Amino acid sequence: MKHPPLIFLAMLLIMAIGWTSLVATPQRQFGNQESELQDGQLYPVARSGLANQGREVYRSQGCYYCHSQAAQGNAADLPQFGKRRSVAADFLFESPAMVGAIRVGPDLANIGERQKSDEWHLLHLYKPQLVVTGSLMPSYPFLFEKRKISGGVPSAQALNLPPSAGLEKGFEIIPLQEARALVEYLKSLRTDISLLEAPIATPTTNNPAAGKVNGKATEK
Amino acid sequence: MKPEKNKSKTTANKPRESRSNAVVIENEPSAGTNSIPVIFFILLALGLFGGMLYLDRYGGGFNRLVYSPYAKFEDIPQPVLGPEEQLARKGKLIYGNYCSACHMANGLGSPTAPPLAGSEWVTSAGHERLARIVNGGLTGPIKVKGQEYNLPGMLAWGQVISSDEDMAAVLTYIRSNKDWGHSAAAVSPEHVKAVREATKSRSEPWTAKELLELPDAAPTSAKP
Amino acid sequence: MMTQTEEKITFASMPQDAQIKSALVPCMLPLFVLGVVSLAAGSILALVASIKMHAPGVLSGFEIFSYGRIRAAHSILFTFGFVVPMALCVSYWILAHLGKVLPAGRPVIFLGTVLWTLGLLSGTAGVLCGDLTGFEFYELPRYSAAIFAISFISLSVPAFLTLIRRNVRELYVAHWFILGGLFWTAWILCSGLVLLGTHSLRGVMQSLSSFWLGNNLTVVAAGSFGVAALLYFIPKQSRRPLYSYQLAAFGFWMFFAFGSGSGIPKTAPLPSWISGLSSVCTGLFLLATLSIFINLWMTWQDSKTSQPYTVFFKVSAFFMLIGSAFSTVIALARTGYPLDFTFMPLAAASFWNSGFLGFALLGAFYTMMNEIAPHTGITLRWSKWHFWIALAGVLLIALGHALGGLVQSGKLSGSGNFSEVTRSVVPFMGISTLGQNLFALGNLVLLVCLTRLLLQSGKRQSAAFITWICERRGNR
Predict the structure, then answer these.
(1) pLDDT at residue C46 above 50?
(2) Peptide bond into B69 cis (omega under 30)
(3) Across A58-62, B176-180, C18-22, which has the greatest mean pLDDT?
(4) How close does chain B come to A30, measured CA to CA in Å?
(5) C242 forms bridges with which residues in the sheet?
(6) Which backbone phi and psi does A38 adopt, to 5 degrees?
(7) Cα separation of A127 and A120, whole Å?
(8) Residues with Cβ within 8 Å of residue C407, at least 6 apart in sequence
C-alpha cells in the first residue's frame, strides 16, 4: 500500500474483473443476438420508419424518467402490464434501449397490445388528465399545433376534444409529426409473442393468474 | 474493542507514531495502529457465503436464457401445443411467405385478393372447396361475405406448396386464426393428399360456380 | 530511519503551509465557483422537477422544461458541475498538503477547468434542447462526453504529477482513495464515450453498460473522493490519528472490489445472473462503507476538540452508511413488489448524492475556504445556516421518497390500480418538494457566502494592487 504504481495495478485488475464480469461476459452471451424463430414467427423484427422516429421523440422528451419498459411477468405485473416478462431479445433493434428504472407511470413494454387506439394516445399526450382522471403525467401541448379552423370545416386530423379541455370555439388541435411518430412507436411496443425464455402462460398451467389479461383467459 | 481504545489513548501522550518509521507531518492526519476488529473478517466470510447461496437461488445458473422468476433453465415452462396448433404455427410461416402478399397479414385482402378474415369460404365446415382453390387456383367472379369480387384470379399453389403437410398447415392456419376470429376445423395432410388425388387430372383453375356445386360437408374423420 | 535533526532540515526545505495554500488558490477558485454555481442551479432544477411530480401542470407548456429534460440537466449539473470539480479541489488540496509540495501544472489545471466548463455548458444546453441519451444513469451527450474525457485528463495529470513530486514519500490512506477515484473517473469517462457514445453496443447491452458506468461514477468514483475527504478532514480536525490503518485498507479494497459490481437493478430485462451478482456486490459494499464508517467514528469519538466544520463530515459519514444500507435493502429484497420501481432508489440516491457527497464536499469547501481566508469569519457564519437548512432538506427529501416508495410497494403488491396508487403517493412527493426547497435554499446560502468571500478578497486584492501601484509611482 506504499507504492502508487502497485495500487494503480491493483485498481486496474479490479476494474478489469468488474468490467469483464458485468460488461464483457453479457456481451458475449447476448450482445450479438440475431432475430430468431419464436412462436412461429421471426422475432424481433425492426420497427417501421415512423415508429423509429417516434422513438427519437420518446428519447428527447425523457419519457423513460417516469416509464419503464421492463414488464416483470410476475403476479403483480401480469394482470396490468403484459403477458410475459421483458427480455433482452425485445430490445435488439432499439437504439437506445430505454429500459427505464422507475414506474411513476405504468410500464410501457406491452402498451401496443393494451391500447391500440391512435385517438386515445393523441388525447393522452395532449392532456393526460382528459383520459386518465387525476393523472400525474404532464401534458405535451408542444407536440401539437393549435390553429384556427379554416373554412368553417374542422380538419379530419383534428383531435376530438371534450368540452372540459377548454379549447376556444373556432380553434382545432392538430397533431404534429412528432406526436404521430410517438404514437406509432407506442403502438409498436408489444410483448405478446411467446418466447423460449419467457413463455406466455397458457391455460394448461396450474397458475390461476397465468394467461389472464383483464380477467379473461387468453387463448393461443 | 475496549483494549484497543485504551491503546489509542496512551499513544496520545507519546510522540505521534505512524506506520513504518515514516515522518509525521504537523497538523496533518496520520493513520493509527489499531488492528482491524476480527468481526469484519467474520462479516466478510458470512457475506461471501450468503452471496453464494443467493446466487444459487437467483443466479439462474449463469444461463443467458434464465430470467427471474425462474431459478434454472429446466424450470421454464414450455407451452404444450397440440398437433393442430403446431400445424397452424407452421402454416403461419407459409402464409407469410406466399399468401400475405395479396391477402395481407391481417387477412383483409387487397386490390388483387378478396379478404380471408371472416370469409365463409375459409371457415366452411368442409375443406374440399378451400383445398381446391389453393391447390388449383381460382378464376372469374366470386362472392365473399356478400360482396362480389371480380379479380384477375388466383394462381395455383399446388406445385409451389408441394408437400401435403405444408398445404395442410396453411389451410389449418387460415381456418383457425384467432386474430381473424376463426375456429374452424383443422385440415390434415391426408385430407390434402385425397384432394390432390381427386383433382390430379385437372389443370385449369376453378370457378366459384363449379366449387359451389361440390358438397361441403365436414369430413367425418381426420382421415378421408 | 531519519534522525530528528535530519527530519527538521528536510521539513524546513519543503514549502510551508501558507505557500502551498496560496499556490492552490488560483487553480481551486475557478473550480469552486463552477461547483457552487452548478450546485445552486442544479438544485433549483431539482426543485422544479420535484414540484412537477405532484403538480404536473406547472411549466408543462414549455418543451425546454419537460420533466425528463430537467431531471437530466440536474444530474449533469450535480455530478459533473458540482461533484467532480469539488472532488478535484479536494484532491489537489490533500495531495499538496500531505506531500508538502506545491501543486504541479497549474496552467494545465486552468486549461482543464475552462474545457470542463465548456463541456458542462454544452451538456446542459444539449439536454435541455432534447439531446438526451436515453440512459437514466449516464445522461451525457456525446460531444459533452468527449470534452469531459479530454478535460478530465487535463485536470488529473497535474494531480498525478503532484503525487509523483511529493516531498514526503509516505502515503496516507486518503491517497489510495484519491488515486482510485482519479483512475476510475478517467476510465468511466473514456469507456462511456466509446461504449455508449459510439453506439457500438446493441440492444439491452447499452442499458446494462449505462447502469454499470453510472453506478461506478456516482458510487465508486465520486464516493471514493468523498471518502478521501472524510479520511483526511475528520482525523485532522479531531486532532487524532485515524483509528486503524488496517481497517482503512480493508475498507479500501472492499469499496472498489464490490462497488464496481453493484448497481444493476433486478427489474431490468437481463438474465437473472447479472442482477444477482450485482445484488451480492451491493450487499458486500455495505460492509465496505460500514468499515469506513466505524473507522471514522472511532476516530472522532476519541476527540477532545471540536471544530466548526467537522459536523459536516460527521453527518456525511452517517449518510454514506444509510445510503449504502438503503441500496442494499432495495437490491436484495426479493419479496413483494420490486422496490427498484418505486421511489425508494431515489431516497437511497438522495442519501448518497446530496447527503454523503454533498455534505463531504461542502464541509471540505468551507474548511478550505476558511483556511484560505481565515480572518473574515464569513465561512463560519454562513456555514452554520447552510448546515442546518441543508440537513433538514436532505432528510425531508429522503423521507418523502422513502415513505412514498414503501406505500407504493405495499399497495402494488396487491395488484392495486396503478394510477390510484401513484396518486396516493402525492402527499409524500410534497414532503420531498419541501425538502428540495430547503436544500436549494441552503445552496443559495452557499452561493451568497462564496460571493461575499470573493468580493472581500477582490476588495483586498484590488486595495493591495492599488497600494502597489501607488508605491511604484511614489518611487519614481
Answers:
(1) yes
(2) yes
(3) A58-62
(4) 7
(5) B31
(6) -135, 130
(7) 11
(8) C421, C424, C425, C428
β pairing state of A41-43 and B138-139: unpaired
CB C225 within 8 A of CB C175: no
In angstroms, the first-to-last Cα distance of chain A is 63
**C-beta atoms of C267 and A23 within 8 A:** no
C342 touches chain A (CB under 8 A): yes
User: What CATH code is assigned to B83-221?
Assistant: 1.10.760.10
DSSP string spanning A46-69? PPPHHHHHHHHHHHHTTGGGT---
Question: What string of DSSP letters covers C353-372?
Answer: IIIIIHHHHHHHHHHHHHHH
Contact C261 A21 (CB under 8 A): yes
Residues of chain B contacting residue A219, judged by C-beta atoms under 8 Å apart: 178
- Which residue is closest to B69 within chain A, CA to CA? A74
Please give the span between the terminal C-alpha atoms of chain C, in angstroms, as a whole number. 55
Residue C200 sits at the chain A interface (C-beta within 8 Å): no
DSSP letter at B110? Answer: B
Give me C200's grid cell: 457500438
Please give the span between the terminal C-alpha atoms of chain B, in angstroms, as a whole number. 90
Mean pLDDT taken over chain B? 83
Which of B4, B26, B28 to mutate: most C Cβ within 10 Å? B28
Tell me the C-alpha distance between B195 and B216, whole Å: 13
The distance of A85 to chain B (nearest Cα, Å) reads 8
Q: What is the pLDDT of residue A56?
A: 95
ipTM confidence score: 0.88
Residue B125 three-state SS? coil
At C195, give phi and psi (nearest 5°).
Answer: -70, -45
Q: Cα–Cα distances in Å, from A82 out to B178, C41, C252, C415?
A: 19, 40, 44, 13
Decide if B192 contacts B167 (C-beta within 8 A).
yes
The model's pTM is 0.83
- A 10 A CB-CB count for B82 gives 10
Which residue in the block uniquely carries the three cell numbers 425508494? Answer: C344
Specify the residue for cell string 446542459.
C124
Q: Strand pairing partners for A173?
A: A146
- State the cell numbers at C227: 471518502
Query: Model confidence over A146-168: pLDDT tens digits?
Result: 988 888 888 888 888 888 888 88
What is the rounded distance in angstroms from the CA atom of residue C25 to the CA atom of residue C296? 28
Distance of alpha carbon C87 from alpha carbon C93, whole angstroms: 10
For residue C286, the one-letter residue type is: L
Q: Phi, psi (5° rounding) for residue B201?
A: -85, -10
**Other C-beta atoms lying within 10 Å of the C-beta of residue B120:** 11
Where residue B27 falls (left for φ over 0; alpha for ψ -120 to 50; beta otherwise) is: left
- In chain B, where the domains are located: 38-75, 83-221
Chain B residues lying within 8 Å of C338, measured CB to CB: none
Q: In what helix (H) or strand (E) does residue C72 lie, and over which residues does it extend?
A: helix C67-76
Q: What is the pLDDT of residues C110-128, one digit of tens each?
A: 999 999 999 999 999 999 9
Task: Decide if A70 contacts C207 (C-beta within 8 A).
Answer: no
| pLDDT per residue as tens digits for the range C72-96 | 999 999 999 999 999 999 999 999 9
CA distances for A157 relative to A51, A123, A139, A149, angstroms = 19, 12, 19, 12
B94: which 3 cell numbers? 407459409
Phi then psi for residue A4, to 5 deg, are: -55, -40
Closest residue on chain A to B71 (Cα)? A197
Mean of the per-residue pLDDT values of chain A: 85
The Cα–Cα gap between C255 and C261 comes to 10
> Which C-chain residues 52-81 have CB contacts (< 8 A) with chain A?
52-54, 56-57, 60-63, 66-69, 71-72
Given a contact cutoff of 8 angstroms between Cβ atoms, the answer to whether C25 and C372 are in contact is yes
The whole-angstrom distance between A149's CA and the closest CA on chain B is: 35
Q: How far is C213 from chain B (nearest CA, A)?
A: 21
